[in-house]
């Protein structure tokens, strides 16, 4: 087995030094796509490549968001490096440390190695909120599953005009879920900084408005205002299947041991209070395309 991770990077210097090193703790190699980075991300990628010789860096200079093309570029490169299994690791995600060193579970790489074509490893996802030490325990941000790895097959690829698709298409992927919520999984650093969370959702709105100009402003706002709606219901998602959807948020504490393998590198490589690059990008795009293009869109006061 050769497990190669795919990590798209767009101005993730605030966490990349930690998350890429963490991915290399359970992946044989990682292919990173440097997407028009203007912060220190490119330097961090080069430093870790020189440090480990297990990182491949692809360049994509067009700042427009084209996730399907980005993921397919990385998949093609991973195949060129002989990947038999693929890990999907975004730059603001990190596996809970108990899955790297635990008496109760195999190493995460072993879980991935058990996969056969047509199966996808899924782990519980923990949306951190306002801190590294708490996560959403209910609502639309709680009790989520994240696709983390799959056995490669030539039928699989990313394509089409989709805003986001974490899993490749071409064949059905059956979920393999070896652990349950509360036993570990993947941290999403999504909401450690409320300012960054706000800026990300403003940029999502701008991007959708440019990509699909006929889409209703109200529909875009409704989707991307959920991050501030403590009583967010299932109105956008159909029948409720999650626990606590439509109820006020509750939170759970992160077990200290879930961070233990990373404590030696966190201080120098994780800066959650850095200014979010998305703020400047929102203002740039509004300036480039004109405020009239986004009239009525709630951009949270950023532009």
Task: Walk me through this protein's architecture.
With 303 residues, this protein is α/β, with parallel strands linked by helices. It folds into 2 domains: 3-190, Spore Coat Polysaccharide Biosynthesis Protein SpsA, Chain A (Alpha-Beta Complex); 194-228 and 274-303, no CATH class. Helices cover 29% and strands 20% of the residues. It is built from 8 helices and 11 strands. The strands form 2 sheets. Strands 1, 2, 3, 4, 5, 6, 8, 9 and 10 form a 9-stranded mixed sheet that branches. Strands 7-11 form a two-stranded antiparallel sheet. Helix 2 links the parallel strand 2 and strand 3. Helix 1 runs parallel beside helix 2 (41-52). The longest helix is centred in the C-terminal third of the chain and has 18 residues, at 194-211. The protein is globular. The N and C termini lie far apart (48 Å). Residues 234-243 have low confidence and may be disordered.
Short characterization:
This protein is α/β, with parallel strands linked by helices. It has helices at about 15-25, 40-50, 65-80, 110-115, 195-210, 215-225, 265-270, 275-290; strands at about 5-10, 30-35, 55-60, 85-90, 95, 120-130, 135, 145-150, 175, 185-190, 250-255. Helix 1 (about 15-25) runs parallel beside helix 2 and helix 5 runs parallel beside helix 8.
